[in-house]
């Protein structure tokens, strides 16, 4: 059994493992895919103190750093069930798809999130070649260019406002007949000279020249007519889904959006079970933030262990 078992091997899980192991306690990390979302990223330019790196390189560095310590790394292990301790101070158990079960006095849940995809032709083909999901990360790559933002909820409208300051033109495309974002955001959006809003539009294809995105096709839902926009980038903002399906039915409290609710030390509603990174309600899903939160959860778990 472990003192700390981390579930998830992205930036949050790797940071948690390093911090826990440095306390000299029995630490394990089990992850479906060590590296997490970072593996799907090309250029990373906001990992502070590293001016420029690439996702796979950072993912390899995360694993290398964890391996410097006495940590049991169990890759390609998908957690399917969480069984909390039957009594205070007891061991929590995690069951994996492989049939394995691990038990630990504390858990750190760091299973991250995934961007909801449009599921239209061209989206996967041009991912990282014009199709982007994170304006904080990739916005500057489109300086002076034309982009579309798909999605008129808060994240889509925030992205459009953010991008309007960097790019030449922004077209915001919303499926419904009106935007769903807060009124104050919509007002700000409407005040910007280089933003156009198209509602009642179903995105049907991301177009490209074989190398990069060069357009977007949408269908006017009222008339059924198809239109094409010439542009260089498409930001998909139709939701970030937390990887918490496996916690349904467990006593770990989730928000309405399915994110894990934590306190200021990273502890969930179940004593001894902590969480960190994109899987939690903590806002602004970024690598540096996930690492900070993972470190905090490990220190929180250590504190909990020495008190119980
Ligand atoms: P994740 O990275 O999502 O890691 C989750 C881990 O949990 C993975 O190991 C996964 O396999 C595992 N897991 C999931 N479910 C289970 C399960 N049931 N059982 C076991 N393991 C499981 N951020 C930046 O700061 N800068 C950028 O430039 C940047 N660019 C990005 C580009 C793209 C294309 C994407 C998708 C994201 C980008 N981000 C960027 C966001 C950043 O990658 C995330 O904020 C960060 O990876 C979150 O870390 P995490 O550890 O919380 O979760």
TrEMBL record:
Functional description taken from the UniProt entry: Serves to protect the cell against DNA damage by alkyl hydroperoxides. It can use either NADH or NADPH as electron donor for direct reduction of redox dyes or of alkyl hydroperoxides when combined with the AhpC protein.
Family to which the UniProt record says this protein belongs: Belongs to the class-II pyridine nucleotide-disulfide oxidoreductase family.
Domain FAD/NAD(P)-binding: residue ranges: 2-294
Recorded superkingdom: Bacteria
Gene: ahpF
Lineage: Bacteria, Pseudomonadati, Pseudomonadota, Gammaproteobacteria, Oceanospirillales
Positions spanned in the full protein: 211 to 518 of 518
Protein name, as recorded: Alkyl hydroperoxide reductase subunit F
Keywords: Disulfide bond, FAD, Flavoprotein, NAD, Oxidoreductase, Redox-active center
Organism listed in the record: Halomonas kalidii
Subunit and partners: Homodimer.
Cofactor(s) needed for function: FAD
Entry annotated with the keyword Disulfide bond: yes
């Amino acid at each position: 059994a472990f003192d700390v078992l981390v579930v998830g091997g992205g930036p949050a899980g790797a940071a948690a493992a390093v911090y826990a192991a440095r306390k000299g306690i029995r630490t394990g990390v089990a992850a479906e895919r060590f590296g997490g979302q970072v593996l799907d990223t090309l250029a990373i330019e906001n990992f502070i103190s590293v001016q420029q790196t690439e996702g796979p390189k950072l993912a390899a560095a995360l694993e290398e750093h964890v391996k410097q310590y006495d940590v049991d790394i169990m890759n390609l292990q998908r957690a399917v069930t969480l069984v909390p301790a039957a009594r205070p101070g007891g061991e929590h158990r995690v069951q994996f798809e492989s049939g394995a079960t691990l038990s630990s006095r504390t858990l750190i849940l760091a299973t991250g999130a995934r961007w909801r995809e449009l599921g239209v032709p061209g989206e996967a083909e041009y991912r990282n070649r014009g199709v982007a999901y994170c304006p904080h990360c990739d916005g500057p790559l489109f300086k002076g260019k034309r982009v579309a933002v798909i999605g008129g909820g808060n994240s889509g409208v925030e992205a459009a406002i953010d991008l309007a300051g960097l790019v030449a033109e922004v077209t915001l495309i919303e499926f419904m007949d009106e935007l769903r974002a807060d009124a104050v955001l919509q007002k700000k959006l409407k005040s910007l000279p280089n933003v156009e809003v198209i509602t009642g539009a179903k995105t049907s294809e991301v177009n490209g020249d074989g190398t990069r995105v060069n357009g977007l096709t949408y269908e006017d839902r009222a008339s059924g007519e198809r239109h094409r926009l010439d542009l260089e980038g498409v930001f998909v903002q139709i939701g970030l889904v937390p990887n918490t399906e496996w916690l349904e039915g467990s006593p770990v409290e989730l928000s309405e959006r399915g994110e894990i609710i934590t306190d200021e030390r990273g502890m969930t509603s179940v004593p001894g079970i902590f969480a960190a990174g994109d899987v939690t309600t903590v806002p602004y899903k970024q690598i540096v933030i996930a690492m900070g939160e993972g470190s905090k959860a490990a220190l929180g778990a250590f504190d909990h262990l020495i008190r119980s």
